[in-house]
Amino acid sequence: LVPGVAGVVDGGMLPGYFGYETGQAAVGDAFAWLLRLVGHKDFKQITEQAMKLPAGSEGVRCMDWFNGCRTPLMDGNLRGAFTGLSMSHGPGHLYRALLEASGCGVRWIIERMADGGVPVRKLIATGGLPHHNPLMVQTYADIIGKPIMVHPSTQGPALGAAILGAVAAGKKHTGFGSIASAIKTMSAPAAAGGKVYQPDRAQMKACDRLFNDYLQLADWASGGKALS
């Protein structure tokens, strides 16, 4: 058990393995909310603006608890914030700050897992966002300081459900007598690989400072619970 982790499920994803349920609620929704807030119709323009900015969003910081904090504080009543704003900042600063806050949240979870005796040795991103938002994945890699592979399937969760469904239907109907055999056949072959985002070593010091700022902001936003 790891303090602050919402659930630990024996066999919840694969037989013989424990699944750890972590993360923030509504990450993609937070990006969509910000897009609506600044009046943009799509992410193209705001992404181009964010890509021109250095790590740290030129002083803008974000606490991404716009739908509460799931991991590690498990408090749905906590709320988000932007700090460090001046009239020289624009939508791109807000967007990059939100991306960076989300990445800091993942790093916080990874470090909490390691402190609890469950080290995270490999990161694979799946689902829609990693394919549609390369800036997000690169930002995560820079902040976490580890490579992140984006799985080649653009519908990872749906594929997983289909695999489990095929096994549940029975070997007589699908030919699959185990989850392992279904995974081997139905998932993308190893040769297909996936794009790997390497952390930018030149950004490491800036990202470490950014992460420390995130923890301090989290402590303020939670009334001293984050670092206690």
Concise overview:
With 228 residues, the protein is mainly alpha-helical. It is built from 9 helices and 7 strands, in the order ββααββαβααβαααβα.
Key structural traits:
single chain, 228 residues, mainly alpha, three-stranded mixed sheet, 9 helices, 7 strands, 45% helix, 10% strand
Number of helices: 9
Low-confidence stretches: none
Calculate Rg over CA atoms. Answer: 19 Å
The proportion of strand residues reads 5-15%
The strand order across the widest sheet is: 5-6-7
Mean residue pLDDT? 93
Distance between the termini: 19 Å
Report the helical percentage: 40-55%
Give a quick account of the main beta sheet: strands, pairing sense, barrel closure. Answer: 3 strands, mixed
What gross morphology would you assign?
globular
Judged by helices, strands and strand pairing, the structural class is: mainly alpha
H-E order = EEHHEEHEHHEHHHEH
- The tally of strands reads 7
What does this structure look like?
- By secondary structure, this protein is mainly alpha-helical.
- The protein is built from nine helices and seven strands, in the order E-E-H-H-E-E-H-E-H-H-E-H-H-H-E-H.
- The strands form three sheets. Strands 5-6-7 form a three-stranded mixed beta sheet. A two-stranded antiparallel ribbon has the order 1-2.
- A hairpin with a 7-residue loop joins strand 1 (7-10) and strand 2.
- Helix 2 packs across helix 3 (91-115) and helix 6 packs across helix 8 (179-186).
- The two termini are 19 Å apart.
